[in-house]
Write a structure and sequence with these properties.
alpha/beta; four-stranded mixed beta sheet
Length: about 280
């Protein structure tokens, strides 16, 4: 099936609404509910709310976390290290070098989520419940400005055998898995064939501002392109429309300042406005 095209913010919201309505109808039938019995409670009982979104600036990139990408394997090879050893070292360096910047003790999973949000290669893929935040990431990478982007919509609860994990309820499950693979020496750990789908604690910072969700991958599910068309819908963002979409998102206050919440990115937005960077005038 050919991917649908998103040309602007309006078409994005329209497409998302259509697939959400279709999924709600599917779910109602799947659970053998009629219209009167369908959930009518708060938004977290609605099937719309179980959609997660991800934006990638290059349409060709696979749905694969950074530690499973070619450049990370190549970096490990140059350092004469195994892939897992290089992964462990990177995370340990993050813990050692950021200790003075973190004011309270954090669990392994909290440190791992924090490292991901600041760009460290991990086994995590970022998702969000806000489609416009995902759309932002399809249009803002300068290196890929001439490449078509991709927006993904993930029906996070469609696979009943692999339900969503709330960190506050099952943090030990995630901590044990991460401690097993990242500890030294690593422990024997069962590598799942399907990624963990994680709802993190919404502590102040990027996780909150980006309405974050995560999928945590193993060697057995490093790439989840196989889920496209069943659990994941993929949209194409033409390179020719990226500047228009970026301007529309800025009008809606979807920009560096609101997504990353730090002084450097607030100033970056101001400088874009002052100097009309990337023709953003």
């Amino acid at each position: 099936m050919k991917d649908k095209v998103i040309n602007d913010v309006s078409s994005c919201l329209q497409e998302i609404n259509e697939i959400a309505d279709a999924y709600e109808e599917y779910a109602t039938q799947e659970y053998e509910l009629d219209g009167e019995d369908a959930p009518k409670g708060p938004t977290w009982y609605k099937y719309h709310h179980n959609l997660w979104f991800r934006g990638q600036s290059n349409y060709e990139w696979p749905l694969s976390p950074k530690v499973y990408r070619e450049d990370f394997y190549f970096a490990a090879h140059k350092a004469f290290d195994f892939h897992l050893g290089y992964e462990q070292t990177a995370f340990n360096q993050f813990i050692v070098r950021t200790k003075h910047l973190i004011s309270k003790p954090l669990s392994t999973s909290e440190l791992y989520f924090l490292a991901q949000h600041h760009g460290l290669p991990t086994r995590l893929l970022d998702w969000t419940t806000n489609p416009l935040i995902a759309l932002y990431f399809t249009v803002t990478d300068i290196k890929s400005k001439n490449k078509d982007g991709a927006l993904f919509a993930f029906f996070s609860r469609k696979n009943k055998k692999n339900d969503v994990i709330y960190v506050q309820k099952e943090y030990k499950r995630i901590d044990n898995y991460l401690s097993g693979i990242l500890g030294y020496p690593p422990k024997k750990t069962i590598e799942p064939n399907y990624p963990f789908k994680i709802i993190p604690l919404t502590s102040p910072g990027r996780i909150l501002s980006q309405s974050s969700r995560f999928s945590l991958h193993s060697d057995n599910c490093a790439n989840i392109n196989n889920l496209i068309e069943d659990e994941i819908v993929k949209f194409i963002i033409p390179s020719s429309e990226k500047e228009l979409i970026k301007k529309e998102l800025s009008l809606l206050n979807i920009n560096k300042s609101s997504i990353f919440l730090d002084i450097d990115n607030i100033v970056a937005d101001i400088n874009d406005e002052i100097y009309c960077t990337n023709n953003n005038c």
